[in-house]
Design a protein that fits this description.
The complex is a heterodimer. Helix content of chain A is about 75%, strand content about 0%. Chain A is mostly helical. Chain A is globular, with a radius of gyration of 26 Å. In chain B, a hairpin with a 2-residue loop joins strand 12 (about 220) and strand 13. In chain B, helix 8 crosses helix 9. The termini of chain B are far apart. Classes of the chains: A mainly alpha, B alpha+beta. At the A-B interface, helix 2, helix 3, helix 4, helix 5 and helix 6 of A face strand 25, helix 8, strand 32 and helix 13 of B.
Chain lengths: ~325, ~675
């Protein structure tokens, strides 16, 4: 007989080992990572393709100048010159980059449900199951996205306030360091807030997925309570993976920008894409770790507790079953 | 004219006479009480042995100014005595004066133009901020022998008839000043300094005080030249002497465009600093209690120049960079253009938030610009010091009219900026020098021209340009590009001789564009009118392209594939722009042989045809990159075998950025 505890939003009885479990989930369910990466790459490529095709065919591919100024080194003024040509071969680059970003965001919104189910279930999902999960959670997560955007408003106000304080400090302080130091502190604080809010909504998505719950505002309440009581372990989990992502990204940038020969285009492409995979991978790692954490958390609370053997029942008495509602 | 070394010895004697022993920029110098400005000037004159010291310039004006800085109200209360020598060759009765600080008022012509097209550091349609209010009020005007003429002052608006503009006033004297005679004006005036805007003003306790006193116009081309202050204009004034007493709090560290000849502490906590400057046409100064003073010197062909670097808090890491650029520029100018005749140069590093005061030139004082975080690969501090020091030649000494012919100072200076920066920091890396990105001065100047290639000719009055972008792109960028093209056409040695001769002929005078162009023709011995008509007076665009380059078998109709093949190669060169200029065309074949053609460019296109046993590999107009005015370098050369690495590189960056930004967006989901 199982005995389930009721208060599932309290602190976890022991720190779940979700960090490595999350990494393992990303590794064992690599297909998710690669599919998202491929979609990300294709969308970006499609956004660029037309401009690049025109630029190569009409301006750069047969130009001796492009080889001198853009291949062996990277002369910024060459790029400026391209933009100033009457034909403006770089036209449309800005708008063409917005559309892929928007489409990718929609794609990820759709995929999130499937990703979470795939990480939560012990068994591997087939494609049908995956997309069924995507569809099942899509509109719920759209609603969560709206709540998330609303939650960002106070942070935006704080950021605006920080900007004004920066200006005031910069105006008044003799030292040029005062305002940048304030900016650094404010940025860290705002980043902390952003990550905390993201963590809150991430966990709301996980709980919603785990419980197949439709009422998102209720999920937000439960998630808030859960994150509040386990903030240290959850935030540390989120932060550690973020830091790994930033370090890998920085290392990639260093190799690309500093160590690589300017004309080694294939290697540059490879490094850039590896950076993208790592960046994406760390985000999925966060998702997987949060899912694993929640799963371990539930198991910890819902673990079977040995019960004393039942007392002999007197003939004629029928024991009543105790049904406890889950409230986590 | 005496040698510069003699001037140094004379100056040393003067300094000894007045007993100066401490640094000119010591925070609390312990010098004997300084004489008043007039007395200092007399002493200075008396120190020079009679007949030995000759002025470098025709001294038309002699300013004696006594000014007290109120650091609480950011105001200056001052009196000025101007002795003006009438060398105009005719009687003068009406004298115009600049009152530049009155530009910083909402109804001024300056602000109207700023609202139209912006100016340095300020975008178009920027709102009016009362903290940028500035003014100069002449409270009293007296003329020796003519009494109080305060009521005879009248604001005039020679450029746009905006009656609200008060940047020029005219004093009508009761009787004319005969030719050769002098007139002495006495003025009391009050300055309200703006928070730093358009080169001048205060920021916290930093002061950069420029264009701050009533300055008489210039009799030029047989009339008074005294323009209103505009969003895009700079300055124009006559040479002379300045004796200035500055009364500032004792905590202030002061730098100025003059020699410090006296300093004394006053009982009220202030100190009086006396500066003397000669053969200059302006006087500016700066004060801050937070400067760190860096003293250095440079020795050139004519002696030692003292360098005073006034560094703002947090910027000391840029000091060695400033010094390296400054010394390099001094050396380059010394060899390339001519000697620097002054014995000092002061470099002011504005504090953070006061960059609008940076990047400006005054005689023997320039303002630079940096930030607490300035990567070594970004050569902005070096570039600004080089440029502003160059103005000691093209503005301070060769004192052209910046209102009407800005290209003569900013443009020529930008051309020399390319030469100096390329020599000091490399042709491809003199602006930006990172492993992942580079930029050179010459390309940067050309790019700024390309952004506005055909709105205005170089010769347009500064305030009549289409806008501040056109003013900047044409005055700085196009002039530099025009002169770079000319240098390639004439040869570097000839161009060097041009600049040298121009400097020697016109230093300490007010030459015109005609003078400059005539010097080029004289020195080069070539008729360059066609080039000047198009490049200087015109707005034609220069653009050559390889329209076609291909080879065809001569006996294309024969099926045989054995034996040597003869090819007929066609190369068509197209002049896309209206600017006609001779160019070279280089055709390279796949057997590594090449042909160099020369085309006068008069027709719209030309086709070259060759028959040889090799096919064309590439064709290029202007292979040695002589014609910097060419609008599009990318269509100059055409290779038959394509090289898609450039476009792949751009795609790499763009795809990567797009993917990453997409993921950042997706973070919200």
């Amino acid at each position: 007989m199982l005995h389930l505890t009721l208060d599932s939003t309290g602190p976890a009885p022991e720190p779940p080992r979700a960090f490595f479990a999350g990494a393992g989930l990303v590794w064992t369910r690599q297909r998710i990572l690669w599919w998202i990466f491929v979609v990300n790459l294709i969308l970006a490529f499609l956004g660029m393709h037309q401009v690049a095709h025109w630029l190569g065919g009409n301006v750069l591919n047969h130009s001796l100048e492009s080889s001198r100024r853009l291949v062996h080194g990277f002369d910024i003024t060459a790029l400026a010159e391209l933009g100033l040509l009457p034909e403006n071969p770089l036209r449309g680059m800005g708008s063409m980059s917005v559309i892929p970003s928007f489409l990718f965001t929609l794609f990820m919104l759709f995929m999130t449900g499937g990703i979470l189910v795939a990480y939560y279930d012990d068994l591997r999902l087939d494609a049908a199951g995956f997309f069924e999960a995507c569809g099942r959670h899509f509109w719920r997560f759209v609603r969560l996205l709206i709540y998330f955007l609303i939650a960002l408003i106070p942070i935006a106000i704080l950021a605006s306030l920080a900007g004004k304080i920066y200006n005031n400090i910069d105006e008044a302080a003799v030292s040029p360091y005062s305002a940048p130091i304030f900016t650094a502190v404010a940025a860290i604080f705002l980043l902390f807030l952003l990550m905390s809010v993201r963590l809150w909504f991430d966990m709301a998505q996980v709980i919603s997925m785990a419980k197949d719950e439709r009422k998102m505002y209720r999920m937000l309440g439960r998630s808030a309570s859960l994150v509040w009581h386990n903030f240290g372990s959850l935030f540390w989990l989120y932060l550690r993976i973020s830091v790994i992502g930033w370090v890998l990204f920085g290392a990639g940038l260093y190799i690309w920008m500093i160590r690589l020969r300017p004309e080694n285009t294939p290697a540059a492409f490879l490094i850039g894409q590896i950076m993208i995979v790592f960046w994406l991978g760390t985000r999925l790692w966060q998702r997987a770790a949060e899912t694993a954490w929640y799963k371990q958390y539930r198991l910890a609370y819902y673990a079977p507790v040995p019960m004393p053997p039942p007392a002999p029942v007197a003939p004629g008495e029928i024991p009543k079953a105790e049904i406890l509602p889950e409230t986590d | 004219m005496l040698t510069w070394n003699s001037r140094v010895r004379i100056k040393a004697a003067v300094l000894l006479l007045v007993g100066l022993t401490a640094s000119a920029f010591a925070k609390n110098p312990r010098q004997p009480r300084a004489p008043q400005a007039k007395a200092a000037a007399e002493k200075s004159k008396a120190a020079a042995p009679a007949g030995e010291k000759q002025p470098l310039s025709t001294r038309v004006v002699a300013y004696q100014i006594q000014a007290a800085l109120d650091t609480r109200e950011h105001k200056i209360k001052a009196s000025e005595t101007l002795t003006y020598k009438n060398l105009t060759g005719q009687p003068q009765q009406n004298f115009p004066f600049h009152l530049y600080l009155n530009a910083f008022q909402p109804q001024s012509t300056f602000m109207t133009e700023v609202r139209l097209y912006g100016t340095r550091g300020t975008g178009a349609e920027s709102g009016w901020d009362p903290k940028h209010f500035g003014s100069i009020t002449v409270t009293k005007l007296q003329v020796d022998g003519m009494g109080d003429l305060t009521n005879k002052m009248q604001f005039i608006q020679p450029d746009d008839h905006n009656t609200e503009d008060r940047t020029v006033f005219q004093a009508a004297l009761p009787k004319p000043i005969p030719p050769g005679a002098s007139v002495v004006f006495h003025m009391d005036f009050d300055d309200i300094l703006p928070e730093v805007v358009e080169r001048t003003g205060y920021k916290r306790d930093f002061y950069m005080v420029g264009q701050w006193f009533p300055k008489v116009g210039v009799w030029w081309k047989n009339q008074w030249n005294c323009h209103q202050f505009h969003a895009t204009t700079e300055f124009f004034a006559d040479f002379g002497t300045f004796d200035v007493n500055l009364i500032v709090p004792q905590s202030e560290i002061v730098g100025a465009g003059g020699d410090l000849v006296g300093s004394t502490n006053n009982p009220d906590g202030t100190k009086t600093l006396t500066f003397h400057s000669e053969d200059v046409h302006d006087f500016s100064w700066t004060a801050s209690p937070h400067y760190t003073v860096v003293e250095d010197s440079w020795t050139g062909s004519t002696g030692t120049v003292k360098i005073h670097l006034l560094m703002s808090p947090g910027h000391m890491r840029s000091a060695p960079r400033y010094l390296h650029a400054l010394k390099g520029t001094l050396a380059y100018y010394d060899q390339y253009v001519g000697p620097y005749p002054y014995d000092r140069i002061t470099v002011v590093d504005p504090p953070h938030g006061a960059l609008d005061a940076g990047g400006m030139e005054y005689p023997t004082l320039i303002t630079a610009g940096t930030a607490w975080f300035m990567p070594r690969g970004l050569l902005a501090p070096e570039g600004v010091v080089e440029h502003e020091f160059g103005h000691q030649y093209w503005y301070a000494m060769v004192a052209t009219n910046e209102f009407e012919e800005a290209w003569l100072d900013e443009g020529i200076n930008s051309y020399l900026e390319v030469k100096v920066m390329d020599a000091l920091y490399g042709k491809q890396t003199s602006i930006l020098n990172f492993p992942f990105a580079q930029a050179g001065e010459s390309q940067e100047q050309r790019t700024s021209y390309l952004s506005v290639p055909d709105f205005d000719p170089l010769t347009r009055f500064a305030w009549q340009f289409e806008g501040s972008n056109s003013y900047g792109g044409v005055t700085y960028g196009k002039t530099a590009t025009v002169l770079l093209t000319l240098e390639k056409f004439l040869g570097e040695d000839k161009m060097r001789e041009v600049m040298h001769q121009y400097f020697l002929r016109y230093r300490f005078t007010h030459p015109t564009g005609e003078d400059f162009l005539k010097t080029i023709q004289d020195v080069s011995g070539q008729d360059l009118h066609s080039y000047f008509d198009q490049a200087v007076s015109g707005t034609n665009i220069l653009d050559y392209e390889i329209d076609d380059a291909h080879s065809d078998r001569v006996k294309w109709y024969e099926i045989t594939r054995t034996g040597p093949k003869l090819y007929r190669t066609y190369v068509t060169v197209h002049r896309k722009g209206d600017f006609v200029f001779p160019v070279d065309v280089k055709i390279t074949f796949d057997d590594k042989s090449s042909v160099l053609e020369h085309w006068d460019g008069r027709d719209r296109w030309i086709r070259y045809t060759y028959e040889r046993p090799a096919q064309v590999a590439s064709a290029e107009v202007d292979p040695d990159r002589k014609v910097w005015l060419d609008r599009n370098f990318f269509n100059n050369g055409r290779s038959i075998d394509g090289d898609d690495r450039a476009v792949h590189k751009l795609m790499n960056i763009w795809v990567f950025a797009n993917e990453w930004i997409s993921q950042l967006f997706a973070w919200i989901t």
